[in-house]
Amino acid sequence: MIRVRGLNKQFGATPVLKGIDLDVHAGEVLVVVGPSGSGKSTLIRTLNGLVEPSGGEIAIDGVVTPANDRKAWQRLREDIGMVFQDYALFPHLTVRRNMTLAPMRRGRLREAEADAEVRRLLELVNLAHKIDAYPRELSGGQQQRVAIVRALAMKPKALLFDEPTSALDPETVSDVLAVMRDLANRGMTMVVVTHEMGFAREVADRVVFMDEGVIMEDAPPEQMFSNPQHARTRAFLGKVL
Ligand code: ADP
Ligand code: MG
């Protein structure tokens, strides 16, 4: 579903991604871990066109996006959903409008079916009663669940998550993780940057350890957590587990 080859990114003279190769198969859940500043956010932001790479290519579902084709990079955003740490809901729009704005504009949701679809999606996250609420009237965990189903409303081929629970109160973290686990069980292709090692252990098909702009290690969770191959991986996991 996602194939990354030789992906590079520099900010000014500073290389941040140094030749990333990565494959994510349809229905797979990939968890990305690594120290702060290792390039995790930059990597997943390039996957949906928010960051333009300096070199390399990404193919989504067989469609190749070369590094220098800006239009093609922007189209990535329509096929690959993204969920951010800070939810990024539009504060002046209701839950309903937050969910319908982009898909209606992009022709992925027709007016006539919008209401039923929004309700169906909100029911998945037990928030149908909040359809006319504004983001400020919701808890952080509720906002994040809306952000997840808002991404689903675009019918994405894959969903990316950048530390989706890092800003949440501890008691709402599990609600959001439960939604993500449910999506994984339904076969959604997901790339998740997180420090929730319990989630990685239970839900990930593979865990990738990033360090200083490279993928140091890529393994199933049982291997990554019980028998990491590199000293850097061991040192990192020693601190977070
Ligand atoms: P992580 O998500 O693993 O913490 P990031 O991808 O956010 O890492 O950042 C990797 C490196 O790139 C850091 O050194 C960061 O300061 C730098 N960086 C990220 N975004 C930008 C930007 N827009 N401009 C300049 N430097 C950036
Ligand atoms: Mg980050």
SSE layout and pairings?
Elements: E1 2-11, E2 14-24, E3 29-33, H1 40-47, E4 55-60, E5 63-66, H2 70-79, E6 80-83, H3 95-105, H4 111-124, H5 140-152, E7 158-162, H6 170-185, E8 190-193, H7 197-203, E9 206-211, E10 214-219, H8 221-226, H9 231-240
Parallel strand pairs: 3-8, 3-9, 6-7, 7-8
Antiparallel strand pairs: 1-2, 1-4, 4-5, 9-10
This protein binds adenosine-5'-diphosphate and magnesium ion.
Residues 40-41 line the site of magnesium ion.
Brief synopsis:
With 241 residues, the chain is of the alpha/beta class. It is built from 9 helices and 10 strands. α3 packs across α4, α4 packs across α5 (140-152) and α5 (140-152) runs parallel beside α6.
Termini distance? 30 Å
With strands numbered from the N-terminus, the spatial order across the biggest sheet is 6-7-8-3-9-10
Number of helices: 9
Mean pLDDT: 95
* Unreliable stretches: none
Give a quick account of the main beta sheet: strands, pairing sense, barrel closure: 6 strands, mixed
Structural class estimated from helices and strands: alpha/beta
In terms of DSSP E residues, the strand content is 25-35%
The SSE string, one letter per element, is EEEHEEHEHHHEHEHEEHH
Q: How many extended strands?
A: 10
- Choose one word for the global shape: globular
C-alpha Rg, in Å? 18 Å
Helical fraction? 25-40%
The small molecules bound here are: adenosine-5'-diphosphate, magnesium ion
